[in-house]
């Protein structure tokens, strides 16, 4: 592979992370920007920016395809077992039947650089507000 091919995903992903990191709060209009995968493509279900609310209401199969494309999850190469899981362990909102979907959303948002959104969702979760009620 030529060096130009390898630089494109790095540059694109850096720009997406900067844009995602600039999201300061959850809102219906905030958009999360996709990053390229290792092969220089976007995930099938996430090739253009999507509103945060679209992820909350996204079917589990679509979210799983995105997680697979980024190799995120407990049985995949990248697993946020470290700080993310430790930080979520005491959150009230994650003690319901939607735990896996919510954890996947937070792992995806964190992977994409939307740290302020993750922190805000965690804070609201501790206050007893479910993820689907924050927008």
Annotation keywords:
single chain; about 140 residues; mainly alpha; two-stranded antiparallel sheet; 2 strands
Architecture overview:
- The longest helix has 19 residues.
- The chain is 48% helix and 3% strand.
- It has one domain.
- It starts with a helix and ends in a 9-residue tail after the last helix.
- By secondary structure, the protein is mainly α.
- The protein has a two-stranded antiparallel sheet with strand order 1-2.
The end-to-end distance, rounded to whole angstroms, is 43 Å
List unreliable stretches of 5+ residues: 90-97
User: Which radius of gyration do the C-alpha atoms yield?
Assistant: 15 Å
Oligomer: single chain
What about the largest sheet?
2 strands, antiparallel
Count of individual helical segments = 6
Strand order of the largest sheet: 1-2
**SS content category:** mainly alpha
- Look at the structure and give the mean pLDDT: 78
Order of helices and strands: HEEHHHHH
How is the secondary structure organized here?
Blueprint: H1 3-21, E1 31-32, E2 50-51, H2 52-56, H3 60-69, H4 83-88, H5 99-111, H6 115-126
Antiparallel strand pairs: 1-2
Helix pairs in contact: 3-5, 5-6
In a nutshell, what does this entry contain?
This protein is mostly helical and 135 residues long. It contains 6 helices and 2 strands.
């Amino acid at each position: 592979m030529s060096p130009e091919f390898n630089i494109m995903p790095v540059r694109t992903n850096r720009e997406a992370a900067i844009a995602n990191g600039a999201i300061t709060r959850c809102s219906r209009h905030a958009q999360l920007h996709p990053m390229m995968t290792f092969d220089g493509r976007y995930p099938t279900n996430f090739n253009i920016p999507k509103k945060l609310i679209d992820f909350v209401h996204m079917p589990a199969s679509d979210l799983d395809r995105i997680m697979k494309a980024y190799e995120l999850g407990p049985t995949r190469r990248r697993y946020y077992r470290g700080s993310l899981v430790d930080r979520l362990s005491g959150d009230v909102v994650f003690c319901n039947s939607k735990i896996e979907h919510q954890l996947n959303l937070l792992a995806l948002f964190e992977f994409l650089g939307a740290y302020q959104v993750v922190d805000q969702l965690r804070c609201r979760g501790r206050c007893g507000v479910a993820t689907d009620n924050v927008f």
